[in-house]
Amino acid sequence: VLENQDLQDSIKPQKVEFRSLNFNSTLHWQPGRTREARDTVYFVQYKVYGQSTWQNKDDCWGIQNHVCDLTNETSDIQEPYYGRVKAMSAGVYSDWSLSCRFTPWRETMIGPPTVTVVHSNKTIILKLQAPRSPYKRKKGSKMPMTNYYDLLYQVFIINNLLNEQHRVLVYEGKEKVIKIENLRPGVSYCIVAKMYMPMLDRSSAYSSRQCTVL
Fold first, then answer.
1. Where is the Fibronectin type-III domain (predicted)?
2. What's the gap between Cα 71 and its chain centre?
3. Is the full-model pTM beyond 0.70?
């Protein structure tokens, strides 16, 4: 019995946590303290805070991965959720390991916008597009993150003659097409942008750079 108890404790999953980007929400965990045996499998359940019964996540029942996609199960983005995971090895089950409470609307990270340089002469014209959530409109297109939050685009310009790290904020607002004027011909400029959420004072990562020589 003791050996079983030891095995139970040593295979119990560690560091169970939700990670979420644009409401694509996955549960992650690490194997127990011992080196993971080949036959270790994991079982995942989830529930809304305040509910008494846990739901099995069928796609993550007896899996060998350390990650489980709960995007569809956490689609009510204002609700707080919990996930939990247990392991089985050599016919022995661990106890459940519980995640912290996870509320998608509060905790999801926002991704960067997509930036397209449409035109450049002495002026750079940019098209900005907010990242999309996994949730669809009735017609089937994915809803942009701007449907869920009051988001601003922040556009920065990097003049390659100057310091690479020196980004100058040239625009902040909600317009999707913007003009950057009065630039010097023959100079290579790069543009990066991010999404900013004033309410939670949170920013996305920078978009990938778009560079152009005027």
1. 12-107
2. 11
3. yes
